[in-house]
Amino acid sequence: MVDRHGLVTRHNPRYLTLDTSAPLSVGNGKFCFTADFTGLQTFFDAYNASADGFPLCTMAEWGWHSYPDAPQGDSQLRLTPFDTFGRAVGYGVDETGQEALFRGLRQNPHKFHLGKIGFTLEGKPLTLDACRVQKQTLNLWEGSLCSEWTVLGTPVLTETFVHPWEDTLYVRVVSRLAAAGKLQVFLSFPYGSHKKSGADFTASSMHQTRLTHKTSQSIHLERRMDSTKYRVTVGFTGISGDTLPDTGLLPAHTLALGGKARGTDTWELAFRFEPLHIPALDRLGDFVEPGGEHNPPSFTQARESCSTFWKTYWMSGGAMDFSGATDVRAGDLERRLVLSQYLTAIQSRGRLPPAETGLSCNSWYGKFHLEMHFWHSAHFALWGRVEVLKKSLAYYQKILPVARSIAASQGYQGARWPKMCDPSGFNSPSSIAVLLLWQQPHPIMLAELCYRAAPNEGFLREYRDIIVETAEFMKSFVHWTDTCGVLGAPYIPAQERHDPKTVLNAPYELEYFRWGLQQADQWLARLGEAPRFGDTAEQLALPPQKDGCYLAQENCPDTFSALPFYTDHPSMLAMYGVLKSEKVDPPRMSATLDQVLAAWDWKSLWGWDFPMMAMTAYRLGRLEDAMDLLLRDSPKNTYLPNGHNRQTGSNDLPLYLPGNGGLLLAAAMMATGKQGFPQGFRVQAEGLYAYL
Q: Domains (ranges, CATH) in the chain?
């Protein structure tokens, strides 16, 4: 049995010096708070100063905002017609002459920073020169952040954690400065922004902060930003709020607590955030639960709930212990796996698919990309946490009518799933996103992983329509030649380097469609229904190849020799890594992997490419190559001290959760596979489920 406490706690991040590139976060899967070395967000500007900075945000999955001039739909969007085997199909790919509408649809709605929380001294902002880091430790086992620091030589101890069920941040402050009335804790509200930080602190006239009620131990605030409304309740003990008015508009959108001697060196605070009206969530029905007027639970009660939750989390699900390994890289692999479990737990356990930067900051305006849902969340089923995957899988049921309308508007059957979207499910216009295809089989894949982890006839029936309508679209997308079915233009493959007007039979899409159609028939068979899609699957073309290697697509003979074709995702490998296509010739796939290793531009890869390639190498029996790929030293395979997969060279992606999810997926595949890990990576594993 794995010593889970020892496994987890030996990877607690510990900082003894300032590192603005890798701040630490606490969260509950649907609400996340990222802190600086003070345990709060005191130095928001310093962490966010550089273009590639890692912002300090407070974010919730319900936290969506739209500008007042945001388009009220895409009915006026001019579509570009693409020839589709003799008929025209329109896609929103060109902003020319409709720039405001196009960009407005992309930027709205966006996630936003709910509120910045930090320290001041005697009512003035702190400076980095006045402060020193002593020690900061993220206690993974209990889900709390302990920050020891000094200001002008005086020690301050801050403990920070998030309630496991409520969107509430808890803070305990211990310092002589608190007893003396010199220290303050502030809560400052920005206007929402589509930019990386999700915050605009310069637009004070664009939003409203009203103090609605005050007691000796609580303050109740209501926030309005255009059509977005939310409530903030602040509970406190040992600290003064006497300087505040009883009700009314809050000056400068800032609440300050403390600054008055109370004779105690210990403060306890709770900041609860609750949605009141979030228009972006209206289509999801009961997504927003009405909040109560009661005060947050006490610090002690919440601390016990948090500790119990995290201990239970770590004691359940899968575990991998590499302490007996002899390869020097095993310790870092174990660290990455433990921290990836934590990071996906605090940012990716909600009812919506996560954004690529989760709840840490905005990427692509905070919208989520459904082709990434697999890389974000498939691992939950393999690590014994299938109920987490089921929560976000249910999103497809919510937006099924939208997916049907997308397919119908383009002349297809079934449901065509969007790519880049907000909770409504509507596609954001894009020169690339609306033409992607590889997210289509994902609901079948994710549902199948859930079913294999917990077989249940009720689940089969619950997702029957999702499976069938997904397959109906894929079947209707196939074009028939005299000899076979093909995946032809227009679409853009996972490797986004190909002209959508000439693409033909991209291997991953081809084999993923084949697998999805076959799996849909198996799903129907489990329910006692007749097959509907197997004939189409069997008559699809074979993956294109040349000179003993698989190509990026049939009309790309220069895959390995001409730019830009050996950049971005080498997605032809995925058909024998993510999938195990029966149509793949393993020696030819091995030769293709060799070509990728020799010719590919590694700087252009993304975080999930490394586990994807490792999975392919593993299926080929190339275990050493699999581990080399999983841990390869490369800009986009960088793992920071906080565990995040930084996309070095991309200012917009100081973190990248698909990389963390892919790492967990690939490692679980190896741990449960017959071949095991390569020599030197002796592992003690438990609680894991096999992959396909």
A: 10-65+109-313 (2.70.98.50)
* Dihedral sign, Cα of residue 612, residue 618, residue 619, residue 620: positive
- Which residue, among 612, 624, 625, has the nearest Cα to 662 in the 3D structure? 612
Q: What is the pLDDT averaged over residues 408-429?
A: 97
Reduced to 3 states (helix: H, G, I; strand: E, B; else coil), residue 98 is coil
How far CA 565 is from CA of 158, 345, 488, 497, in Å, comes to 51, 36, 18, 6
The answer to whether 443 and 466 have CB atoms below 8 angstroms apart is yes
What does the alpha-carbon distance between residue 545 and residue 292 come to, in Å, rounded to a whole number? 61
Which pair of tokens denotes residue 555? 């009309």
Q: What is the DSSP string of 497-535?
A: -S-TTT-B--HHHHHHHHHHHHHHHHHHHHTTPPP-SHH
Write the single-letter amino acid at 587: P
SS3 132: strand
> What CA–CA distance (Å, rounded) separates 462 from 621?
37
Angle between helices 373-382 and 386-393 (to 10 degrees): 150
Helix (H) or strand (E) segment spanning residue 555 = none
Helices 464-477 and 400-409, axial angle in degrees (round to 10): 20
Residue for token pair 């024998």: 576
Q: In this predicted model, what pLDDT tens digit does every residue of 501-533 receive, in sequence order? A: 999 999 999 999 999 999 999 999 999 999 999
Question: What tokens does 322 get?
Answer: 């590499």
The 3-state DSSP class for residue 219 equals strand
Q: Which residues make beta-bridge pairs with 255?
A: 187
Residue type, 382: L
Residue from 599, 663, 667 nearest 637 by CA: 663
Q: Output the six-digit token pair for 286.
A: 């009961």
User: How far apart are alpha carbons 35 and 41 in whole angstroms?
Assistant: 5
Dist. CA 154–CA 132, nearest whole Å: 10
Q: In whole angstroms, what is the distance from residue 451 CA to residue 453 CA?
A: 5
CA distance 58 to 359: 8
Question: Residue 398: which pLDDT band, with cuts at 50, 70 and 90?
Answer: very high
* pLDDT digit string, tens, across residues 300-321: 999 999 999 999 999 999 999 9
What φ, ψ does residue 221 adopt, rounded to 5°?
A: -120, 150
Distance from C-alpha of 541 to C-alpha of 483, rounded to nearest angstrom: 8
Residues 6+ apart with CB under 8 A from 447: 393, 459, 463, 466, 467, 523
- Spatial contact of 617 and 607, defined as CB atoms under 8 Å apart: no
Which tokens hold the place of 631? 């841990």
Cis peptide leading into 490, omega within 30 of 0? yes
- The SS3 call for residue 332 is helix
Q: Exposed e or buried b for every residue in 623-634, given b needs 16+ CB within 10 A?
A: bebbbbbbbbee
Q: Which two tokens stand for residue 683?
A: 């592992």
User: What is the rounded CA–CA span in Å between residue 657 and residue 379?
Assistant: 12
DSSP 3-state of 632: coil
